[in-house]
Each structure stands twice: as structure tokens, then as C-alpha cells.
Amino acid sequence: MLGEGLYMIKLNIFLIVSLFSAIAMAEPLMYVPTGNANDIVVIDLQTDQIIGRIDELENAHGLSTSPNTDYLVAGSMKPLESGEASSPNKPAAVSEAEHASHHSGDARRIPSSNKSYLSIVHPKHGHVMQRVAVRSLTHHTAVSPDGKFAVAVHSGAGGVSIVDLQKMQVVSSLATGQFPNYAVFSKAGDRLYVSNAGVDTLSEIDTNQWKVVRELKAGKRPEHMVLGVYGRTLYVANKGDASVTAIDLASGEIKQIFSVGSKPHGLDVSDDGRWLFVASKKAGLVTRVNLATGEQYSVELKPAPYHLTYVDGHNKFYVSSRKVAKIWVMEPASMTVKSTIDLGRGVAHQMVVRDE
Q1: Under a CB-based contact definition with an 8 Å cutoff, are residues 41 and 31 in contact?
Q2: Cβ neighbours of residue 5 under 8 Å, at least 6 residues apart?
Q3: Sheet strand arrangement including 149-154
Q4: 282, 261 in Cβ contact below 8 A?
Q5: pLDDT at 178 exceeding the cut of 60
Q6: What is the side-by-side strand order in the sheet with 127-134?
Q7: What three-state secondary structure class fits 194?
Q8: Rg (Cα) of the chain, in Å, rounded?
């Protein structure tokens, strides 16, 4: 019996080592937080197969990284319990209604007194390395291009927290606007843009001072954003008026408006800057916009296309569903579904690609 037990222990160690050796060797990889399923799914983008899961997440919707950091930074929609510190271990579900309160204009918002944390994940080690307490529940996150800072967006508290990833502590806390939703750094990292869904604006933050220096107008209820390939234009999905606004960052002016399907959510730009892709959750559409001509082409994708990410150099993009545990793999020129990835559980939220 002792021999059999020792054999099983060795076998389990071998499987764990093999799994994370595969994760370390595969390139590129996509990391997908699954919300109430409390993990991150790891997908090999060469094969579009799930090769692992990272546990210890607690209702993470936001996930981000940078080529200049070893870490993934995950938010949490789970409040800290009384006396809880750096290693919370009891996942808590957030209902659909509570999740909706982290989107634009819902009066049922979660109180800002609900403190929470960021989980700092080392993908090659395959687990949470550390947790950093922040002042409120965190919806989306962003990491600066130099990998030194992480941003936690607190939709219910009207602002963001800035975490120094070397000190592993909050170094600044800023008010932006009502119902902030998403954050994007400029290419140089000297500016941070935060969408404020409750007041139809974007806050521009000087990252040298961590100070709001300009407010930009967007469409109605701006949420997700993506930077253009040259870093001069910011594309903003406006949930309230089914549009995407293209904002010139030098002037701060809206230079173009694209009408898309109802409740646009995820969006991304192709690596050559030719196309913008938009997932419209309520309409059940994915729209491709030719950024040179404005021409649009939409295809039906149901149920509820949600987050979207384009993979540079691989001629494909990924769209998750808000209703079912899967991701569609799509070919951009034909706008057809090449395959689907069955997650097994949860919902795919802020998808992140790393070249490991």
C-alpha cells in the first residue's frame, strides 16, 4: 500500500510538472478569467486547445499584463470579509444583477465600502503569488507598458487604484467619474484613459503625477476601449447608443462615429490597422469595420457575443459568449467561425495574450 501511495504522489507531481512545462513552452498563450468559475483558463493559440487552468482566482472579470512583466494581474468581484487579509480562500458569487451594477447607469450598484484585492499571478508557476488589497471591487484591470504599474477599475466607487508592481502596494487612488468601466494606457505609458459610463466621458490621467488632466467626450455609456495600432486614436464602445467613437488623442475630439449593433461590448483592432472588430452583445452580432473606408460587414453570432481579442500575426480573433461557457475562433477576412473552444464552466471575460 505504501508503494502504491508513493507511486501516486510521484505520478501527480509528474502531471503537474508536465502541464506547466507545456504552458512555459507554448507560444503564444491566451489567459482567460472565468468569473464565478474562479479560475483562469490557459489556451495554446497554435492549437486552440485548453492546456491548463490556474486556480485560486475569486470571481475575476478583469485580467491584464505587459510584455515587460512576468505577471498577470486579475481583479476580483468578491468583497473582503471581516478580518480577511492577503490570502482570501472562500470564493463568493456575484449575481447577474450585481454584475450589471458594474456597467453603466444601474442604480443597484454595489457599495464602494466593499474592499477587495488584486491577485498577482505568475503564469509560468501557475498560481497566485500575492494579493494586494484595494479600496473596492475591481471590474477590469490594466498594466502599464513598462510593467511597473497595475490599474484596478472600481466601477462602484467612481475611480481607480494604482498598484506599484515592485512594491506590491497601492500608491495612488483617483476619482474619475461615475461608473468607470475600462482602462487603457497610451503606447508610451505616459497617459491612462478611463471610460466613465455614468457621465459619458473618458478621464485622461498623467501617469507621471497620477492626476486627471483632461476629460474627453465619448458616446452614451462608454465602456470597453482599444488603442489604434499607431497609438493616435482611441476606439470606444458606447453601450448606450450602439456606437463606437474614434477619438483623436492629440486634439481630444471625436473624429468618427460608427453605428453598430445594440449593446456593443468587446472590441479590438487588427495588427495592420485595417480593421476594427466589435462584438454587440444584445444584437448577437460581430461587426468588422474597414477603418480606411468606413465600410462595415456584420455576421450573426449567438448567444451574446461578449469580449473580443485579435491575435497579432495569427490571422484570427476570439469572441466569448456572455451566456455560455465557450469562445468562438473567427477568421477575419471571411468573418466565419473556424472552431469553438469549450470552457466547461464559467464565462470568458477580459482575455489576455502573452508570447511565452
Answers
A1: yes
A2: none
A3: 141-143, 149-154, 159-164, 169-175
A4: yes
A5: yes
A6: 63-64, 72-74, 116-122, 127-134
A7: strand
A8: 20
Q: Which H/E stretch holds residue 353?
A: strand 352-354
Side chain identity, residue 231: G
Tell me the mean pLDDT in the region 313-319: 95
Average pLDDT over residues 159-164: 98
Give the type of residue at 196. N
89 exposure class (CB count in 10 Å sphere: 0-12, 13-18, 19+): exposed
Instruction: Give the number of residues written for the chain.
Output: 356
- What are the beta bridge partners of residue 49? 44
Q: What is the mean pLDDT of the chain?
A: 88
Amino acid at 122: H
Tens digit of each residue's pLDDT (9 = 90 or more) over 72-102: 999 999 887 655 544 433 333 444 444 444 4
Which CATH number describes the domain made up of 27-354?
Answer: 2.130.10.10
pLDDT, tens only, 35-77: 999 999 999 999 999 999 999 999 999 999 999 999 999 999 9
Which three cell numbers mark 109?
A: 450598484
Given a cut of 80, whether residue 30 has pLDDT beyond it is yes
SS3 7: helix
The reported pLDDT for the residue numbered 114 is 76
Q: Half-sphere exposure of residue 238, counting CA atoms within 13 Å on the CB side?
A: 24
Report yes or no: 218 and 253 within 8 Å, Cβ to Cβ: no
At residue 93, the pLDDT reads 42
Q: Over the range 318-338, which residues count as b (16 or more CB within 10 Å of their CB) and which as e?
A: bbbbbeebbbbbbeeeebeee
Domain spans in the chain, listed from the N-terminal domain onward: 27-354
Written as nine digits, the cell of 47 is 492549437
| C-alpha cell recorded at residue 332 | 477575419
Q: pLDDT, tens digit, for every residue of 323-346?
A: 999 999 999 999 999 999 999 999
Strand ranges (E), 115-179: 116-122, 127-134, 141-143, 149-154, 159-164, 169-175
